[in-house]
Design goal:
Layout (H helix, E strand, L loop, with lengths): L1 E4 L6 H12 L2 E4 H14 L7 H9 L3 E3 L8 E3 L2 E2 L7 H11 L2 H17 L4 E4 L3 H5 L5 E6 L2 H12 L5 H15 L13 E4 L5 H16 L1
Parallel strand pairs: 1-6, 1-7, 2-6, 7-8
Antiparallel strand pairs: 3-4, 4-5
Helix pairs in contact: 1-9, 2-3, 2-4, 3-5, 4-8, 7-8
This protein binds 2'-deoxycytidine-5'-monophosphate.
Length: 217
């Protein structure tokens, strides 16, 4: 089991998926689950300020997620939301889910079940994966990068779909809100820190693949 944490734009999604592909492991994007729940509560017409209703929408959500690094998709309540979870509207509302402890507890439970179910092992990524979801993972890694490097990478991912202001909101404001509950920018005991600011993504993938091979051997 490989667990990778890090803030938005640290390169964790791209690299976690590629490492899973190279090592023939499954891949779990836990952020996609938080995003899918945000779509579900918006679909249900729930206000992000209505904590009880957001909790009910989370615990009642039927989430189905691909663990295949070559074919990512996510369905919530029977609807494919693979594209919608990346839209700015979802990104704007996802902190409402991530900051409610009851929602986190529900999603953490589901994530552990998904990871344990795959006998090949899994590369899982997300803010609390090394500390809360899977502290027993064979390799626990925290990727960091300066705010400038993170903004640059997210801008590359999102292209001209977002304005500068939306980009800063997605990367910096969201990390600030999310870190109120989970301190994902400081490596916990036993978690290796990898500063990716001056690395290209292929370099990050190579470095993590080597660490993962050592940890799994
Ligand atoms: O990694 P991402 O940008 O797709 O994450 C989406 C949101 O979910 C973001 O607000 C952080 C939150 N999240 C979390 O709190 N814990 C996780 N394990 C994964 C994501």
């Amino acid at each position: 089991m490989i667990a990778i944490d890090g803030p938005s734009g640290s390169g964790k999604s791209t690299t976690a998926r590629e490492v899973a592909r190279r090592l023939g492991l499954s891949y779990l994007d836990t952020g996609a689950m938080y995003r899918a729940v945000a779509v579900a509560f918006l679909d249900a017409g729930v206000s992000p300020d209505d904590t009880d209703a957001v909790i009910a929408a989370t615990t009642g959500a039927d989430i189905d997620i691909s663990l295949d690094p070559d074919e990512p998709w996510v369905r919530v309540n029977g609807r494919d939301v693979t594209a919608e979870i990346r839209e700015p509207r979802t990104a704007r509302h996802v902190s409402a889910v991530a900051t409610i402890p009851e929602c986190r507890a529900d999603l953490v439970r589901r994530q552990r079940t998904l990871m344990d179910a795959d006998p090949r092992g899994c590369v899982a990524e997300g803010r609390d994966i090394t500390t809360v979801v899977y502290p027993d993972a064979d390799l626990r890694l925290l990727l960091t990068a300066t705010p400038e490097a993170r903004l640059r990478r997210r801008a590359g991912d999102l292209g001209d779909k977002v304005t500068e202001e939306q980009l800063r909101d997605q990367v910096l404001r969201r990390d600030r809100d999310d870190s109120k509950l989970v301190d994902f920018q400081i490596a916990a005991d036993g978690v290796r820190l990898l500063d990716t600011s001056d690395m290209t993504l292929p370099e990050v993938v190579d470095a993590i693949t080597t660490l993962a091979e050592e940890a799994l051997s």
